[in-house]
């Protein structure tokens, strides 16, 4: 069972509950929320309401989504496997795949493909997210490490929580930077003007640190490597948008997309972890996807 809960702020009062919740949670569509309301899976201060209910300040909203094992099925799909043993599997994720099932994505996710590829995945995250220790946005490509058993899952989750995993990304950004390398230390929270976005803000935010260095410069664009020390939602996309250099193709955070990229050009390039069984540090690297390479070659020519 999955549960969502939040308290209504003064600025949000007066909205219809279904519209408000859909704006709060990117992974839940408005029609899906309406279905949950009809099924009495949404409460306000512990009471059942209908979809026309208008929220007021300090209302406590709760959504309950019951997961059914039958909802998840194995589906044969191409997987770009970088490494695999009895404990973990590491893939180079394509940019057109959601990591785990969610409303609107039931049988076209990385989890569906993994279930068809391996015999076992850890069960710690429930039936919808077996083996998933961390995630990448749908339109971000690159390295994703998955646990095949509960022991490996617990050990990897501990490393991610303690920030001992080294995560490096390649991002093609708009414009040119003033420095060859640098550190972005800017807290991130939900954008108060658009609840489906994140933003750099002082209040109601969490510490976020990204370190970058220039890999290659072009006339109007720059390829950077970014090491993230924290794992906030959309962190790299938000930080470079904040600097005035959005990731190419990321229209959500201000890209002009003059290169006509079909997605944000962000790629999880390198991942360094301790193997959950041997304890030895292992480093994985993933080649850029063809669409990313093509745009770089276009810029070089």
Automatic annotation (TrEMBL):
The keyword Transmembrane does not apply. It catalyses: a uridine in RNA = a pseudouridine in RNA. Signal peptide: none annotated. One of its GO terms (biological process) is enzyme-directed rRNA pseudouridine synthesis. The keyword DNA damage does not apply. The active site is at residue 137. It comes from the Bacteria. Residues 15-76 form the RNA-binding S4 domain. PROSITE patterns: PSI_RLU (PS01129), S4 (PS50889). Its EC number is 5.4.99.-. Pfam families: PseudoU_synth_2, S4. GO terms for molecular function: lyase activity; RNA binding; rRNA pseudouridine synthase activity. Responsible for synthesis of pseudouridine from uracil. This is Pseudouridine synthase. It comes from Halanaerobium saccharolyticum subsp. saccharolyticum DSM 6643.
């Amino acid at each position: 069972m999955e549960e969502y809960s939040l308290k209504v702020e003064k600025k949000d009062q007066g909205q219809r509950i279904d519209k408000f919740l859909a704006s709060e949670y990117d992974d839940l569509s408005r029609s899906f929320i309406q279905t949950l309301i009809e099924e009495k899976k949404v409460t306000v201060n512990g009471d059942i309401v209908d979809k026309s209910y208008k929220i007021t300040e300090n209302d406590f909203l709760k959504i309950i989504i019951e997961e059914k094992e039958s909802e998840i099925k194995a589906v044969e799909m191409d997987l770009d496997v970088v490494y695999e043993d009895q404990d973990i599997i590491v893939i180079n994720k394509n940019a057109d795949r959601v990591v785990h099932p969610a409303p609107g994505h039931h049988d076209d996710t990385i989890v569906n493909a993994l279930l068809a590829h391996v015999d076992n995945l850890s069960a710690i995250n429930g039936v919808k997210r077996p083996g998933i220790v961390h995630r990448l946005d749908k339109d971000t490509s690159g390295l994703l490490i998955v646990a095949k058993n509960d022991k490996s899952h617990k050990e990897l989750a501990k490393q991610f929580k303690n920030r001992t995993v080294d995560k490096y990304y390649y991002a093609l950004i708009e414009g040119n930077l003033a420095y060859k390398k640098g550190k972005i230390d800017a807290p991130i929270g939900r954008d108060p003007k658009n609840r489906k976005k994140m933003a750099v803000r002082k209040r109601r935010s969490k510490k976020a640190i990204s370190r970058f260095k220039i890999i290659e410069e072009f006339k109007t664009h720059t390829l950077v490597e970014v090491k993230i020390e924290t794992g906030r939602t959309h962190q790299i996309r938000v930080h470079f948008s904040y600097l005035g250099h959005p990731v190419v193709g990321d229209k959500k955070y201000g890209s002009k997309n003059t290169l006509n990229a079909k997605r944000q050009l962000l790629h999880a390039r390198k991942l360094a972890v301790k193997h959950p069984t041997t304890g030895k540090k292992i480093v994985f690297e993933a080649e850029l996807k063809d669409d990313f390479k093509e745009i770089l070659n276009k810029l070089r020519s």
